[in-house]
Amino acid sequence: MTKYSISNALTIDVEDYFQVAALAEAVNRDEWHAMEYRVEANVNRLLELLDNQQCKATFFTLGWVANKSPSLVKAIQTAGHEVASHGYSHQLIYNQTPEVFREETRRSKQILEDITGEPITGYRAASYSITNQSRWALDILAEEGFTWDSSIFPVHHDRYGMPGTPRWPHRLTTDKGYELAEFPLSTLQFPGYTLPIAGGGYFRLFPYWFSRWGLGSINRQQRPFVFYLHPWEIDPGQPRLEVKWFSRFRHYNNLDVCEQRLTKLLSDFRFTTMSQVLESEGVLEPSSSTLGSRSVAGMA
After folding, report:
1. What is the largest CA-CA distance in the chain?
2. Which of 47, 93, 146, 181 could form a disulfide with 134 if both were Cys (CB 3.0 to 4.6 A apart)?
3. Cβ-contact 252, 62 below 8 angstroms
4. Is the pLDDT at 135 greater than 80, yes or no?
5. Band of the pLDDT at 289, cuts 50, 70, 90?
């Protein structure tokens, strides 16, 4: 298959298997330190795969992981990938107070900046939990120095989603009047229904031919898509935790084929970092150093 000429955003949400919302019923945050730690080996496998494919990505890194494994963050940076924030403790934002969210966001950003020596300006919420209920988080992101975000999923879902919001990269204005570049998670539009197609569990659920067709249809519209994956999704040997059947299905379905599918995806499409795609789309200033600026009249 000939690659489309358009570049898409490849993103990795760096968290371990025991930190995901689907398994929260089996392990709480106080027990994380006692769980088998597998994220380092999985990220290193992804780094090797990306190096073989000569592909760059954005790694949204959890502050908890960065604090435990600073050398892993450095390895991501040294390999030429973009480091962005995934918050600190992978808690759903709409279950947090603004004060707790601000403290965790600031803490994670500082950890990543101390490791990389560079400003961290991109953010993705745990489980895409910036919803209409937690729009206030966008103001805090701008105030804490972020210039772009990829947390909004324009779909209906039991855990996340902002239906009816723009499907393509754009500049959004927060409730307080700040501006952020936003790259919503990719979807397919059908009559009366918007289908998630951006990766993760959907990539494991759908047959590969459907993911390729769906993502290709976005490129055929001359639009970039954003693809996301978690390191634990290429790790079929991870421990199996006892959870309800639906959570078990969400987390463990098709782990054994995900890495093979990812390799195909990297061959079938062009990928780069999130910032580079946002810049090419004209919604993010190249190497922007103006953080959290107020809206300017006449800006798109």
Report:
1. 54
2. 93
3. no
4. yes
5. very low
